[in-house]
# Entry
Amino acid sequence: MSGDGGPVSIIASMTAQVGDLLLFRHARTAGRFFRVGMFGVLVGACANMVSAEHSAQQQFQVTVPVSSTVSVPDQEVVIDDMDQGTGEFPEQIWKLVSSSPTGVVADFTVSSGFKNVADPSIEYDAGLKIRVVQSTGQGQWITTEGNAATNHSGGVSQAGVQVQADAPGQADLALQVLLLDDFENMTAGTYSMTVTCTISIR
# Structure
């Protein structure tokens, strides 16, 4: 039994796998107790597997694109008989919506004053006013340029007002257009001017 060390090496191997086993005098006894010990280890492992907790996860994701929209109250505002001396059109409510995380800049511009429809060479000055009526969302909406006017005689044919937001949100903006020249000095006829709103990401 103590020959080349065969039985001894087997016992040592079994001891390493099972744990704290007593040293036995011969391989047969060691083998019998080894089987019993292994059975106990396997039973314990099965018990642990049955009582183990398992969990699973499911992730939901949505992508919101950066977008900005503007709603025009009316494509055309026509006043046949404007009150003499005022030259003021009623305020027009423009609705702006943006999902940009950095906010937007809204520019309201004109490329000329009021021009005579029958004879565009006849032009009179126009004014613009803008204000924030109300806003919702994260963004703070402010008027950066509240008033502007053309100056036809001075060579200034363009004018613009501006509103900015620093985060996503929506706002109602009141735009007012004014005809600045005195009626008594104007040539009779129909006059027209176009306001353009341009939205850009900050």
